[in-house]
Design brief:
Elements lengths: L1 H31 L2 H4 L32 E7 L2 E9 L9 E6 L5 E2 L3 H10 L7 E7 L13 E6 L6 E5 L5 E5 L1 H13 L12 H26 L11 E8 L4 E8 L4 H7 L2 E2 L14 E4 L7 H6 L2 H5 L2 E3 L10 E4 L4 E2 L6
Parallel strand pairs: 9-14
Antiparallel strand pairs: 1-2, 2-3, 3-4, 5-6, 6-7, 7-8, 9-10, 11-15, 12-13, 12-14
Length: about 350
């Protein structure tokens, strides 16, 4: 169980830690970015849709036939009048809606066609540019994932690779998306963990991350309790040292060293230049830092998991699982490095 707790803690640390680094990096970007450029609106200018001189009297609404509506209003598009009839709509403008356009002069059904979309796109852009293409897109739309209504996408040939998005129900410019805006949207996606393109931050991955963070805290507390029970964690108001005799069998050497207390034997030996073999850095999961204690010492869960019963009876223990203050003499086969800083 303890081994599972430690493994889970390490993997959760990796998952949470990577996202924390991403948050720091993207937060720095948002702090330093040019917000006007990042919005994509550096070359955006308003399009005048206001009424011009009437070419003919407008048809009265009572003379027109249309399905039941939530809202009816007079809409001007490049100086031409339309009746915009909204049958269904959501709370937000990006939510799906059902709209009918009627020509206010003739009463005929109308639409924001490609010609109108191209003209509006050019009028909304500061400076001279050409149009590459104009396409009526249906949702989902990659660059505007929250949008639930069809939009005209007009691609321009400017240096920033601008795409102009126009509401197919009203002719209003929804957004200019250029390279600066795309970079900002990428940073938002990373910052809000929106890796599945929902267009927001209230999604299931955020919930999973919150649960992972809670589990990381719980496994960390459990690990601290286990270390405290094993004598590897205590509060010391004054630094103390423990004299330990170390017999290195491969080199036939004996070291008499003073090691810091309140740390593991693995870390204490490393502090004086004697590095035991390890693949887990003292985490108790690889079982390589075994030593033989020449006196009675407790057995931890990690000892039981990595050492056989016969080895435990012979006094073998994992150096990373035992505090230096509980040890006076040990035997090791060899060290990964053997240049002690303390003199014998």
């Amino acid at each position: 169980m303890f081994k599972l707790n430690k493994s889970l803690h390490k993997w959760l640390s990796l998952f949470v830690g990577l996202q924390l680094i991403i948050w720091l990096a993207t937060g720095l970007y948002f702090n330093l970015m040019d917000h006007k450029k990042g919005s994509g609106n550096a070359n955006l200018r308003p399009v005048a849709h206001t009424a011009g001189n009437l070419n003919a009297p407008l048809l009265p609404l009572k003379s027109l036939e249309f399905a039941p509506a939530k809202q009816v209003k007079l809409l001007w598009v490049l100086g031409h009048p339309y009746y915009q009839i909204t049958h269904q709509s959501g709370v937000h403008s990006y939510q799906a809606k059902q709209v009918t356009l009627l020509d206010a002069y003739t009463g005929q059904k109308a639409a924001i066609n490609e010609t109108l979309a191209r003209t509006i796109a050019l009028k909304s852009f500061k400076g001279a540019t050409d149009i590459i293409s104009a396409t009526l897109l249906k949702p989902p739309i990659n660059e505007l994932p929250k949008q639930e209504n069809p939009l005209w996408q007009v691609m321009l040939s400017d240096a920033e690779n601008t795409n102009v998005y126009i509401d197919s129900h009203s002719g209003h410019v929804i957004a200019h998306i250029n390279d600066d805006r795309r970079l900002r949207d990428l940073m938002f996606m990373l910052h809000f963990m929106d890796y599945f393109g929902t267009g927001g931050f209230n999604h299931w991955l955020i919930i999973v991350f919150a649960i992972a963070t809670l589990l990381l805290s719980m496994t960390g507390v459990t690990w601290l309790v286990e270390r405290y029970k094993a004598g590897q964690l205590s509060i010391a108001f004054k630094s103390k040292k423990q004299r330990i005799t170390i017999k290195e069998l491969a080199q036939k050497q004996t070291h008499e060293l003073e090691l810091k207390t309140n740390i593991s034997l693995f870390d204490g030996l490393a502090d004086v230049g004697l590095q035991l073999p390890s693949n887990c850095g003292g985490g108790g999961t690889c079982g390589l830092c075994r030593v033989k204690c020449n006196h009675s010492i407790g057995v931890t869960d990690a000892d039981k998991a990595k050492l056989s019963s016969s080895k435990l009876e012979q006094g073998y223990r994992l150096a990373c699982q035992h505090n230096t203050q509980a040890i006076t003499e040990i035997e090791v086969r060899c060290f990964a490095s053997d240049k002690p800083h303390s003199k014998p």
